[in-house]
Please model this.
Amino acid sequence: MSESPSRLIKTADPTQPAVPQHKISGKVAPVRIFQKDWMEALTLISFKTFLIFCSVFEGIVFLITLRNNTNSLYTLLYTIAGIPIWLVTEYVLHRFVFHFRSNNKKIQRLIYIFHGNHHIQPNHPYRTLMPIIVTLPVGLLIWFLFSLSLGLGRGSALFLGFYAGYTFYDCMHFATHNFRMKRFPLSLWKKHHLFHHYRTEEHNYSISFPWLDRLFRTHFKS
Model:
């Protein structure tokens, strides 16, 4: 797939002129984010580690959900409701936060840290997933807010579905960059997301549920 001009790469990191100004292969060393090795190590995560962490974390949330809910129907409904909440959250974050436009150097640096580096090197297997150093504190904060608003039982049930949606999203994101996915319907997900990287960064923001881009008129028509 041919490469298109990239706004995120052009404004990759104004504090580091050595950062590549073009997409590079995922088979070489990861693009540097931090100068200190221990900080850099925290940005890398394997697919196996991600799956183990998410399984354990979801298992803990599931047990707490069961222990604090007496009505199975409400538990199920709140869990299901968490999934579409994640889908919309994913779209909004990717479109309006990860691709935020700014001439401020500090903001550009932040965008490079949490997303711009991925557009420089889309297919590196250790940089396709959000690292635990980010997902754990953010996940705990969202769980706390849900529980504060709805009570521990219902809040945990809602978060259970929300985090399940997130886990599916990151697994699908990893797959689109690292698995062949040539057969229908998985090929739809792969094509949809790779268009975002190689054709137009201003379209195809949703990964888990590509049809949201049609709803919000950000679908790329090839």
